[in-house]
Write a structure and sequence with these properties.
5 helices, 109 residues, elongated, mainly alpha, 2 domains
């Protein structure tokens, strides 16, 4: 389920690289070395972002968890607590604490 997010982030990061940099580097070094020393470091933030998105999607929505009634009820409870606390003045700290609890529970599961 998260693989399309990974592929899209990596594809966009490679497309954003200026081809003139690769052309200039390929005049000085072989193509494999150009890929390893120029292209890959420039695309690395997109690759990392893709892996983080894929991991987050895999942790957040598994194949069986959304069908579990307790999962849906727990998610609804957190949403019902977090969203209203962001809409009142000074409720940001409470919302932040609730988000930290929700992240800790998601990572612990």
């Amino acid at each position: 389920m998260g693989f399309p997010l990974l592929v899209r982030a990596i594809r966009l990061s490679f497309e954003a690289i200026d081809r003139r940099l690769e052309d200039a580097a390929s005049t000085l070094a072989p193509h494999r070395l150009t890929f390893l020393t120029v292209t890959l470091p420039l695309a690395l933030p997109g690759i990392i972002a893709g892996f983080v998105l894929c991991f987050a999607k895999a942790r957040r929505v598994g194949a069986t968890s959304p069908s579990c009634p307790t999962f849906r009820a727990r998610r609804r409870r957190y949403r019902a607590a977090i969203i209203p606390s962001t809409q009142i003045p000074g409720g940001d700290a409470a919302a932040f604490r609730l988000v930290l609890v929700a992240v800790a529970i998601a990572l612990w599961r």
